[in-house]
Amino acid sequence: MLLDRSQIEAILPHRDPFLLVDSISRMDENEVTGHFYVRPDLDVFRGHFPQEPVLPGVLIVEAIAQTGAVLVLSKPENRGRIAYFGRIDKVRFRRKVIPGDELELSLRLTRARGPVGSGVGEARVGGEVVAGCELTFVVGDAEEQA
Q1: d(CA 91, CA 122)
Q2: b vs e for 90-121, b when ≥16 Cβ sit within 10 Å of the residue's Cβ?
């Protein structure tokens, strides 16, 4: 493990119940791999859906984005800043994510120019792709309105 949850909290502004990355296992200049254990006690399962708990797709995309944000906000020029969604494209969900699954989250930066960048992300469970997307982000100061 390269980064644990406490080290991730030093980079990202997210906190429970909305921090969706438990660890980072790989990170280089343009790629990052993170992990999120889908705990059965996550509050979201009380309502989505109680009879058949499924992690909402929007949270899978958020977990991919948070993993990418660890990469982007780790760069010296972005420390202490925040990454905002600019756009989400080509989202595809391939299967349900349920309590007990461990998401392997990856993001590869495809473009970064000034405060704006984009990347291609995936979520896998047991090596199987469960979701993918293209993300555009803007890095700004936490006080700014997105």
Answers
A1: 10
A2: ebeeeeebeeebebbbbbebeebeebebbbbb
The residue among 145 and 46 whose pLDDT is bigger is 46
- 57-83 pLDDT tens trace: 999 999 999 999 999 999 999 999 999
Domains of the chain with bracketed CATH: 5-102+111-140 (3.10.129.10)
Q: How far is CA 58 from CA 26, 44, 77, 102, 106, in A?
A: 24, 12, 29, 16, 16
Tokens of 91: 């989202």
- Among 5, 14, 35, 48, the active-site one is 48
Does residue 14 have an active-site annotation?
A: no
Quote the DSSP letter at residue 58.
H
The residue count for the chain: 146
Counting residues of the chain whose pLDDT is more than 90, the rounded percentage is 95
Residue 36 tokens, joined: 């999120």
Q: DSSP string spanning 114-132?
A: TTEEEEEEEEEETTEEEEE
Q: How far apart are CA 117 and CA 31, in angstroms?
A: 13
